[in-house]
Amino acid sequence: MVAHGQKIGMNTQENKMYYIIKNGNQVLHTGMAEPNTVGTQYELLWFDTEAEMLQYIQDNNLEIVEVEDEIN
Amino acid sequence: MSGLGLGLGLGLGGHRIVDRYGNMPATFTVTSGDGTKYVRVKVSETTTVTPAGGTSIRIGTTGEFVTTPLTLVANTYQDIYFNGAGSFTIPRRKLVTYLNLYNLGSSVIRGNITGMKLTYLYLSSIGSSVITGDITGMKLTYLRLTNIGSSVITGDITGMKLTYLWLSMMGSSVITGDITGMNLTYLALYSIGSSVIRGNITGKKLTALVLNDIGSSLTYGTNLLNITNSYGIQLLGDTVFATAAEYARLIHDAANATWSGAYPFRIDAGTNDNCPDWDEVKADVATLLTKAAWTIIPSAWLSANGGTWPEDWDEYTGE
């Protein structure tokens, strides 16, 4: 994970963390990005691992209404 | 003068393709069909569709499947459902102006579109089906090729009046061309392999803009964006605009755009070389934060130019 105070450099997989963007109990979006590179009008939560993120969603009974983000 | 010559040459080449193949039959060969899937067509004049070799067909969802010719009415959407192995044929390709094959599941169909006078081509999630052909010279206004497996569609879109262009997961297909001047309302290029789409994105009333792994083949001018599609605005993979000014214009256009829903604004790629001056675009980013559901910008931009974060940006503190 990114240590506190670490300068964020170029985009690399190593620097990325999992995040949730939520509005109340609805999860609008989950993704991976470098910390600080995401801004939103909604609530933004960061996680070290995908497992932690999924556990948070489960523990808080969040409804996933994810906006389509991947194109096929 | 040379530009005129080139333009005429391309146009004539396209006409030759349509003329040469347009009078050939449009035959769709079915190797697997359970009667639940269809090919949607429009034809420019009333004609027939004739099954052969064991395939039975019907037009629409009602009525019996038959092995005799059926009438295709002119300028009307008609779904040709197919059942059983064999084939069905429309007598001349150039009569076909609209072709839609979508979500074919385990049904398998083969066909060639070269010579059709298509204004609309939609191939998406067609499984093991194989559609081939050259779109050069067609007067397409809508082109969507997504997840088309082993199908091979080729051609040059330069000069077409496309309003919709979506190319993704195209396998070995190669589409080339210049989109400058097209009145596109939708532009998505995603994993397009060896295809090269070039030109200037300017003067377009886009409802979505998604570019992934297309390098620097496109430039960005200025556009009246009206984001109504859930894909929003996304520049992904190795997609880059060459200059900081282009990114500044994109951020400005996005901030001034109408957003009809909670959609993303996402720029994954970008380097210090094309980093807009953060303090110049800060006001636009602050506005954008109130419109897009989430905004992602390259970290390289945020560690350069001495800028400061927009107010209310959700900065990670590492705690």
Give your account of this protein's structure.
The complex is a heterodimer of chains A (72) and B (319). Chain A has 72 residues and is of the alpha+beta class. Chain A has a domain at 19-64. Chain A is built from one helix and five strands; from the N terminus they run ββββαβ. Chain A has one helix at residues 50-59, and strands at residues 17-23, 26-33, 38-40, 43-47, 63-64. A four-stranded mixed β-sheet of chain A has the order 4-1-2-5, covered by helices on one side. Chain B has one domain (2-21, 93-302). Helices cover 15% and strands 37% of the residues of chain B. A twelve-stranded mixed β-sheet of chain B has the order 4-6-2-8-10-12-14-16-18-21-23-24, with helices on one face. Chain B has a ten-stranded mixed β-sheet with strand order 5-3-7-1-9-11-13-15-17-19. Chain B is elongated. The termini of chain B are far apart. Mean pLDDT of chain B is 91; it is low at 1-10. Classes of the chains: A alpha+beta (72), B alpha/beta (319). β3 of chain A pairs antiparallel with β24 of chain B.
- Low-confidence regions of chain A: 1-13
Specify Rg of chain A, calculated over alpha carbons. 13 Å
Radius of gyration of chain B: 23 Å
Let me know the largest β-sheet of chain B: 12 strands, mixed
| Mean pLDDT value of chain B | 91
The side-by-side strand order for the widest beta sheet of chain B comes to 4-6-2-8-10-12-14-16-18-21-23-24
Strand content of chain A: 25-35%
As an assembly, this protein is: heterodimer
Structural class of chain B: alpha/beta
Task: Write the H/E string of chain B, N to C.
Answer: HEEEEEEEEEEEEEEEEEEEEEHEEHEH
Question: Terminal Cα separation of chain A, in Å?
Answer: 30 Å
How is the secondary structure organized here?
The complex is a heterodimer of chains A (72) and B (319).
Chain A (H helix, E strand, L loop, with lengths): L16 E7 L2 E8 L4 E3 L2 E5 L2 H10 L3 E2 L8
Parallel strand pairs in A: 2-5
Antiparallel strand pairs in A: 1-2, 1-4
Chain B lengths: L1 H21 L3 E7 L1 E10 L3 E6 L3 E4 L10 E3 L5 E6 L2 E5 L5 E7 L5 E5 L7 E5 L5 E5 L7 E5 L5 E5 L7 E5 L5 E5 L7 E5 L5 E6 L6 E5 L5 E3 L5 E2 L5 E4 L7 H12 L2 E2 L4 E4 L10 H12 L4 E3 L2 H4 L17
Parallel strand pairs in B: 8-10, 9-11, 10-12, 11-13, 12-14, 13-15, 14-16, 15-17, 16-18, 17-19, 18-21, 20-22, 21-23, 23-24
Antiparallel strand pairs in B: 1-7, 1-9, 2-6, 2-8, 3-5, 3-7, 4-6
Helix pairs in contact in B: 2-3
